[in-house]
Amino acid sequence: MLTIVFLYIMLCPLVFVCSVYSPERVHPYEMLTIKIWVLLQPRTLLRGVPRSWAHRLASLQSASKLPEKKLQALLFPLSALEGQLTSGFSIADLQLFEPSMGDIARAERLFCPSAKHKIDYFSSAVRMDHAPLIRQPEVCFIGRSNVGKSSLIRVLFSLAPDVEIRVSKTPGHTKKMNFFTVGKAFTLVDMPGYGYKAPKDFVEMVESYLETRRNLVRTFLLVDGAVGIQEADRVAIEMCNEFGLPFVIVMTKIDKSRQGALLSNLLQVREVIKTHTVCCYPQPFLASSTQYTGVHVLRCFIAHVTGNLPLSGDAEQKPSH
Ligand SMILES: Nc1nc2c(ncn2[C@@H]2O[C@H](COP(=O)(O)OP(=O)(O)OP(=O)(O)O)[C@@H](O)[C@H]2O)c(=O)[nH]1
Ligand SMILES: [Mg+2]
């Protein structure tokens, strides 16, 4: 008991500092309550705060408590850049995927586990003949090492606290293709990164996956929003073109980028999509895994492209690739 009291006293200043520097995260009072609850639960003491509590913006319902403007910027970060634009181009030209709140809420249900709808890690593979034989539609996340693939998947699955996804500051952390099942609805694959510190068998593993995976319905190619498209990304884009893969570009870590830099990288991505891609969705998505920006709409897009969410209203009229 004394240890618990001691730990609690030590944690208080830390909780205060965290809450001051993370205004979008939980309220200090909520954090204290969480800490107390965790300390009083012997079984959870060593496991930390359940991930489902980790961010108050993880679900649409909790995010909806934000003021309207902040909520719009959270859900549709592209629109938040509108004010920065100079002549000749409007965000409306890019913002093709505009689901309604109802669509986003329906998509979110797919990411919430239940007794009948299990969301879980399935298996890992380093070679295609080890990849699980699954019929349901599949999406995969590729990108340079350290671009934020595993982090983004982790926040997409943040409403399923039992799903363990490891992230690391060290590039080359994910060494295998990791398969996750979302009930019978779809599977999602976290890939090792390319470029610096890519695993030795990367080409054999990832290229043959992309070339031969029959149930792959969409590839999410992640590009660092703070640095834009790099040489290694161009090679990956070329590979998607060559294999005729429908893919979509997601710009990650947008919280780290100044708006001017983000905008110029966005224009670069738009230009590359226009001039150098065959089956790329015309709209790049913007996301931040630390702030949850763009995450709710990405869930919706995944639900849509895997055939689990016919969209209501305008969004359905827009091209799906
Ligand atoms: N600020 C910020 N940091 C991020 C974001 N996403 C990821 N990171 C950080 O970037 C680092 C790499 O993240 P990972 O998710 O492991 O990257 P990865 O693409 O899976 O990397 P590999 O598995 O090595 O290919 C970690 O330190 C993350 O905390 C983001 O949206 N914002
Ligand atoms: Mg990873």
From TrEMBL:
Organism: Paramormyrops kingsleyae
InterPro entries in the cross-refs: EngB_GTPase, G_ENGB_dom, GTP-bd, GTP-bd_ribosome_bio_YsxC, P-loop_NTPase
Alphabetized GO MF terms: GTP binding; metal ion binding
Lineage, broadest ranks: Eukaryota, Metazoa, Chordata, Craniata, Vertebrata
Signal peptide annotation: 1-19
Residues in EngB-type G domain copies: 135-308
Keywords: GTP-binding, Magnesium, Metal-binding, Nucleotide-binding, Signal
Protein name as catalogued: GTP-binding protein 8
Family statement drawn from the similarity comment of this UniProt entry: Belongs to the TRAFAC class TrmE-Era-EngA-EngB-Septin-like GTPase superfamily. EngB GTPase family.
Superkingdom to which the source organism belongs: Eukaryota
Statement: the UniProt record of this protein carries the keyword ATP-binding: no
One Pfam match: MMR_HSR1
